[in-house]
Amino acid sequence: MEITSAMLCDFAQVREGLLFVSSGGVTRCHRDEFPAPLGVFAAFVIQLERLEAQQQHSLRVHVVDEDGNELVDVNGTFEFGSPDLLLIDEKPSIPITLDLRNVAVERYGPVQASIFIDGEYRRSLVLHVMQPPDA
């Protein structure tokens, strides 16, 4: 199992098993007042091996500020479904989106979203909350 794609973006959705991303690759946001919303989605694709497609997996996305203060902790599960739907040697991909737009941030600095699958750390996405350029 691996995360083949992961990013922060302005908008993301899953439709018919496909990931749609608008304005992907966000690494900075400008805020002039606090508390302020992060204003982003997390989007990622998890590729499974055939045997992994037969099981349910846990997913956790833990978002913290630079001091380790928890901003949000999201837990859930995912699964592919019947492996009978797979072609020979096909590795199924599962697209996932997470709406972080309304997660409140209290100050400037980096915010890290860490992705855990089945309790194992897999990847982090970082968003730098900054003063507006004209400030």
Overview features:
135 residues, mainly beta, Immunoglobulin-like, four-stranded antiparallel β-sheet
Describe it for me?
With about 140 residues, the chain is mostly beta strands. The protein has a single domain, classed as Immunoglobulin-like (Sandwich). It contains no helices and 11 strands. The chain is elongated and about 55 Å long. The mean pLDDT is about 95.
CATH class: Mainly Beta
**Gyration radius, to the nearest Å?**
16 Å
Beta-strand percent range: over 45%
Helix content: under 10%
Number of helices: 0
Question: Quick one: overall form?
Answer: elongated
H/E topology pattern:
EEEEEEEEEEE
Give the tally of β-strands.
11
Q: Based on helices, strands and strand pairing, what is the structural class? A: mainly beta
Q: State the separation between the terminal residues, measured CA to CA.
A: 44 Å
The whole-number mean of residue pLDDT values reads: 95
Note the topology.
Layout (H helix, E strand, L loop, with lengths): L1 E14 L2 E7 L3 E3 L5 E2 L3 E7 L9 E9 L4 E9 L14 E7 L4 E2 L3 E9 L2 E11 L5
Parallel strand pairs: 3-11
Antiparallel strand pairs: 1-2, 1-5, 4-9, 5-8, 6-7, 6-10, 10-11
